[in-house]
Amino acid sequence: MTLGPGGTTPAVLGRAGDGPVATRARVSWVGDVGPYARIAVAAPWIARRARPGQFLSLEVSGSDALLPRPFSIAGADPGSGVVTVVFAAVGEGTRRLDEQVRRDTLDLRVTGPLGTAYTAVDGPVVVVGGGYGAAPLTWLAATLSGDAHLVVGAAAASKLCLPEQAHDVCASVAVTTVDGSAGRQGMVTDVIPDLLDRTGAGTIYACGPMPMLRALGELAASRRIACQAATEEHMACGGVGVCMTCVLPLRDAPGERGWHQRRVCVEGPVVDERLIAWEATRWA
Amino acid sequence: MGMTPAVGSPLPDGAPVDLSMSLGPLQLPNPVTTASGCFGSGRDVDAIWDISALGMVVAKSVTLEVREGLPTPRMTETPSGMINAIGLQNPGVDQWLATELPWLESRGVPVLVSVAGNSVEDFAEVARRVAACASEGAGHGPARAGVVGLEVNLSCPNVENRGLVFACRPAPSADVIAAVRAAVGPDLPIFGKLTADTTSVPEVAAAVMDAGATGLTLINTLLGMDVDWRTGRPGIANTYGGLSGPAIRPVALRVVHQVGQALPGTPIIASGGIRTAEDVICFLRVGASAVAFGTAVFVDVASPLRELGRLPGLARELGVSRLADLVGAVHPRT
Q1: What is the pTM of this model?
Q2: Predicted confidence (pLDDT) at residue B204 exceeds the cutoff of 80
Q3: Do B49 and A19 touch (CB under 8 A)?
Q4: Cβ A67–B77 below 8 Å, yes or no?
Q5: B211, B182 contact by CB (below 8 A)
């Protein structure tokens, strides 16, 4: 099925249901969240389908870099048809996107929503963001029925991503920095045990660097609570599922080695942290 | 072949254009196909657009055993291209035939099944199982959806058993093709996929055709490497990987032309940096009859469908009502 008009090839490609849509979209700069850029992608089909934890891929135009970049969705408004994304300009592609989008509204290819979403649970939860991984979590918090206690961690105050709406949608907000330049000095895992004790939370939702996810998984296991982690890996195909580059070993089915390489873009990015065979990854 | 004028008078808008192609014994509705390993078995793309629009699907390679593939990172971007080393991750031929092939057949699209192996015997056994499964249906034949043939992945540089790149030399390539031919019988079309990482592709091509191949797929990725100037670390876990994308398009064009000149009439599936309808026509002109989108699918998942839709317009611009008339239409510079 094609979703819209557009000459020989429809301008919006996708199927009925909640699967991914490939289209072009107006992309504009909205503001900054700490050192990170927040951009708006005007893509109604994606805004209607997206759920917290999912991602989209955006073309980065204007050089010999070809591949689309995946970005976690930080918010989706079906009413306005706008999806927002928060990103760090760290590589060649994202630096160029950052420069261009601050100057002009861009017209870019976009595919989404892609991958798995967080599964909602009832009752109090702890929500943990590392670096700009905090961006999608306030959207998640707003969709949950119980209290969400947010912990945001960064290397330093200058790397902190604390979305404005965090205090509105979260029951509490705690900040940690490795160098102590904001909030409490240390790692997110230093403050979570107390938080779990105080709130009785039964689930940790996490988005951030892989070593942080691993540490959170160990903490969750020791407390016998669940941890839903949004993982990341290099992707060639922008997350459609065809290139097999973004794999992560998961213990999700019997097998010779006890794990199978699964695609972060299709079987993830959100996975039950207990399934990750960390010993078979480069974060071992 | 080769008799079409460089540019004819344009045809009027809306004039019908016949996109069908003969690829040896295969009749394809159009020349647009997919490069093995860049399209999975098509399910993920079909979730976005109807893959039955394609002339043919070339599926991701299957091996006798289940393969989990290589460690990550498996991919790094390079100027106008990318380098990858996946390690032929696949569920094994039996699982693939049980789950992916029936789905592909249900989509009504011709399928070329890509087979790979560590040894001549491996290749033959995988091919035998695919052929047995294919013949359970109505039997292969022109224009039939489902399995229309095999692509023999002679040139994948990523297998863990390094040094065993069959396609680098004529004799090992011919050994594999002869064994696969013996395994599947005389009728099932076999395409040998070759590498350009060798001294003379035409020599390998001739050996493969003599050994019983129906045609050739040209070219696989070129072996490459990237390294971080600061850390000294290679760009991917496997150090070396296959370079693909527009960066290799001129090499692919040269090889298709060279082999077409050396072995006139050989059915050729072209692959290497193709991303536009104009690229498709370039590869038809140098002698291909089917043209595969690979890395272009990664760049833009809609590209095969969109560029297929642009072919009639380009053909009309060239004054051609049958796209097949462009096959081999390279003209001397004067």
Answers
A1: 0.94
A2: yes
A3: no
A4: yes
A5: no
